[in-house]
Structure prediction request, 242 residues.
Amino acid sequence: MTAGCSTGNNPAVAPTEDTSRFVTLTDIVPDAILDIRYYGTYNFIGTRIDGYEEPTALLTREAAEALKAVSDEVMKQGYRLKIFDAYRPQCSVDHFVRWATGITDTLTKSYFYPDIDKSILFEQEYIAGKSGHTRGSTVDLTLFDMATGKELDMGGTFDWFGAESSPDFCGNPDTGEYTADNRKSPKNRIITAEQFRNRLILRSAMLRHGFNPIDSEWWHFTLRDEPFPDTYFTFPVRQLNR
Prediction:
């Protein structure tokens, strides 16, 4: 097993290091912009995460090819895909769990979870011992507006722990109706109608090309027919051998 990416004694995973069905995302989607947050320090822990050896993105070939179709669609609308995270090794998830159990470490609270207490991160499922990312067909992303040279304004940051990150915050993502209903926000925060519509641009393209969303994060999608629904991989994030 690669040094620095051990799963320890985690009984919840049956790990494998087989990379044969994985690709480097930018080999398939060359227009994607990479902003791999867990390779750097701008993330909810505030340090580089175990298992991120290079600032690259890996996915199963099936997920990468589906994402290429998404990229082709949004490029016609003037956007590029910006990737925050893709495949995530199990040792990275274990790092998240260790951090979450250290209740006194609140270095990044004001940036990523100012409205909730760290002690409830497990209870509210912001942190868990297993992640869909580790199966290799899940991606966290946003849209980059080529006209402005900036990320499209989604009304919230990646990895914000709170109700404001939910796709149904202030609206109905299935009908596209904006309601401005912010009662779920502890501090009565709100997103605008334009920010809600921007989230829908990304969501609609991802759903059309075979990805499923989740209820808590507007940026998170998993390939509907993922090839490894029960396998949790352990190899580190770095360029694959060509």
